[in-house]
Amino acid sequence: MALHRVNTDDYREQLAQKAERLREAYSRYTDLDPEVFPSPPIHYRLRAEFKVWHEQGRAHYAMYRQGEYKKPFIIDEFTVGSELINQLMPQVLAAVNESETLKKRLFSAEFLTTLSGDALITLIYHKKLDEQWEAEARALQEKLGFPILGRSRKQKVVLDRDYVTEQLEIGARTYQYKQVEGSFTQPNGEICRAMIGWAKDVCREASGDLLELYCGNGNFTIPLAEHFRRVLATEISKVSVNSAQENIRANGVDNLEIVRLSSEEFTQAIDKVRPFRRLKGIDLDSYDFSTVLVDPPRAGLDPDTCAMVARFPRILYISCNPETQLENLAELCKTHRIERFALFDQFPYTDHTESGLLLVRK
Fold first, then answer.
1. Which residue in 272, 250, 248 sits closest to 259, CA to CA?
2. Which of 168, 163, 195 is nearest to 179 (CA)?
3. Residue of 203, 215, 306, 320 marked catalytic
């Protein structure tokens, strides 16, 4: 399969094989078959990064196979990318090749798009960006109708804005999110909607309060807040915390607090190992946590966080790495049973699998 093209005829069979592998891997902990959420077969990635290859005086988009970084594959389309990415790619490249200022020492081009039709283009250079670059980038921005961002070493030039605005329709509601360039967002928009919808269904009959670790920009937090009395969410990235605060206001949520703490720090705080100034004004003892939501990085939950999470009646565990989730289940399933089990096909045509679990105390 080409790096930028896919054979959609094989998708359903590949997804069935993923589901069977996941079911087998988790069979020691549950006899449930996973609820399977398929991706659109094409145009599913909302963000993409391309190296820029310079040859015979012209710039080209290029991709590389892992470990073969001296052998570029020149591309002019990216069928797994959103339709908007594919629409913008030739327009940006044509403008770059028409301008020596925009082309010179251009190293990479990044596209961030949304299901609701917004976009941001980031051009990354091995040179200092000057007023001439800014003038020509502004002209391109006006022509495209979407913002351009320039980056080079220790330099970030924001011409208009450094974020996109996403609107996700989930059930009867539409949620609005500010997504800042360089911060984490779910790359597959339809799978993101499926994950949030599944989590809301899991929590539909919930009561009490929700704790969320690794909340990012509030992707899950905001839609789930309506199912709980109060919500406390933590995130270590300052950019994501600031975005989450804006998203809370944009969606009119009034029962949610975000604090900038790592999962390890929150574990220390709730166990009263040491106080944190970032928790000033928040009384942890006033919460009646019935559910904890975790969506950790690929490394999974560290041992102390895993032990803390096991104290909650209900654990909603979204994972981008089933291998580390299985490692955590060796501990969590000593006290909890799996009640819901899902597969989210974030990256079709790859071996990558993402999973969701609801664990309930035995």
1. 248
2. 163
3. 320
Whether residue 14 is contained in a domain is answered as yes
Indicate whether 343 belongs to any domain: yes
Band the pLDDT of 3: cuts 50, 70, 90.
Answer: very low
Cα distance between residue 199 and residue 202, in whole Å:
5
How sure is the predictor about 109, in pLDDT bands with cuts at 50, 70 and 90?
Answer: very high
Residue 235 in marked binding region: yes
Residue that is written with structure tokens 């999962």 in the block: 263
Exposed e or buried b for every residue in 6-42, given b needs 16+ CB within 10 A? Answer: beeeebeeebeebbeebbeebeebbeeebeebbbbbb
In this prediction, residue 2 has a pLDDT band, given cuts at 50, 70 and 90, of very low
pLDDT of residue 305: 93
**Is 203 annotated as catalytic?**
no
For residue 357, the number of C-alpha atoms closer than 13 Å in the C-beta half-sphere is 27
- Residue 302 annotated as binding? no
- Residue 76's alpha-carbon distances to 52, 86, 99, 144, in angstroms, are 12, 9, 19, 18
Q: Quick check: helix, strand or coil at residue 274?
A: coil
Question: By residue range, what is the domain housing residue 148?
Answer: 47-164
CA distance 162 to 179: 9
**Is 55 marked within a binding site?**
no
Q: How many domains does the chain have?
A: 2
Where are any strands of DSSP class E within 70-172? 73-75, 106-113, 119-125, 148-152, 155-158, 163-170
| CATH number of the domain where residue 87 is located | 2.40.50.1070
Residue 247 annotated in ligand binding: no
Please report whether residue 175 resides in a domain.
no
Helix 322-332 × helix 11-25 angle, to 10°? 30
Residue 205 bears catalytic tag: no
